[in-house]
Amino acid sequence: MKNADGSLAIVNTSNADTPITDKSITPLLTVDVWEHAYYVDYRNARPEYLKNFWQIANWEFAANNFAS
After folding, report:
1. Less packed terminus of the chain by CB within 10 Å, N or C?
2. 46-56 and 35-42 are packed helices; what angle lies between their axes, rounded to 10 degrees?
3. How many angstroms separate the Cα of 64 from the Cα of each of 2, 59, 67?
4. What is this structure's pTM?
5. Which structural domains are found in the chain, ordered by start?
6. By three-state DSSP, how is residue 2 classified?
7. Which of 62, 33, 60, 63 has the alpha carbon at shortest distance from 48?
8. Interval 26-42 mean pLDDT
9. DSSP string of 32-49?
10. How far apart are alpha carbons 5 and 34 in whole angstroms?
11. Residue 16 pLDDT > 90
């Protein structure tokens, strides 16, 4: 995420919390690692899910969020 002062941070949340509700930050890129996000396609293979996530991440969207 990008903080209001322009600095960057990596944030972990729990219990379905999301930093998107905090108006003082701009989320740049998110990935859901709760089982509901990948279990149907990957079963218990979270590392494989994450490996494939990097192949489809929308870097243009993240760059636009960073620039704003």
Report:
1. C
2. 100
3. 12, 9, 5
4. 0.71
5. 2-67 (3.55.40.20)
6. strand
7. 33
8. 91
9. --SHHHHHHHHTT-HHHH
10. 30
11. no
